[in-house]
Design brief:
- The chain is of the alpha/beta class.
- It has a domain at 2-53 and 96-143: Nucleotidyltransferase, domain 5 (2-Layer Sandwich).
- The protein has four helices and five strands, in the order E-E-E-H-E-H-E-H-H.
- The chain has helices at residues 36-49, 71-85, 97-107, 112-143, and strands spanning 2-7, 12-18, 25-32, 52-59, 89-93.
- It has a five-stranded mixed beta sheet with strand order 3-2-1-4-5, with helices on both faces.
- The protein starts with a strand and ends with a helix.
Length: 144
């Protein structure tokens, strides 16, 4: 059960893949493109190459939980990805993931230029970790 998390963005899209068991966050990468079509094609290729079973995509919400101004853009892209990949896309609250990713990279000593190249992949891994944690919690609660 391989799971892919996506931090979709205007110029950079972060991607994180779980290990084959769907239990741990594995590899990350960034797709550098402003073209939604290019990003979509790259994601579909990764999904097929990595034999992804489940997709989760960061979804913009305001701090009060309401939908952010880019929500419809993300819904539209998720729908396109579902059609192209043949897998449903779970929209996952991405509040603070980019802020936290910048903090993590800063604390690791990366300068602003290096952070800009990797922050989206780290944000995708945070989305994936949150999703995997929620899945484990749900399974534990169902097993009780």
């Amino acid at each position: 059960m391989r799971i892919m998390a996506i931090d979709y963005g205007d110029a950079h899209t972060g991607v994180a893949l779980s290990d084959p068991t769907g239990f741990l966050t594995g590899s990350t990468r960034t797709i550098h493109s402003r073209s939604a079509r290019v990003v979509l094609d790259e994601l579909v290729k990764l999904i097929r190459d990595q034999q992804v079973d489940e997709l989760v995509m960061g979804f913009p919400r305001n701090m009060d939980g309401t939908e952010g101004p880019r929500a419809q853009l993300y819904r539209d892209f998720a729908r396109q990805l579902e059609g192209a990949a043949g897998l449903p896309v779970v929209l996952w609250d991405e509040r603070r993931t980019t802020v936290d990713a910048h903090r993590i990279l800063f604390e690791a000593g990366q300068n602003a230029k290096k952070r800009k190249k990797t922050v989206d992949a780290v944000a995708a891994s945070l989305i994936l970790e949150g999703y995997l944690d929620a899945r484990r919690l749900r399974r534990n609660q169902e097993g009780e």
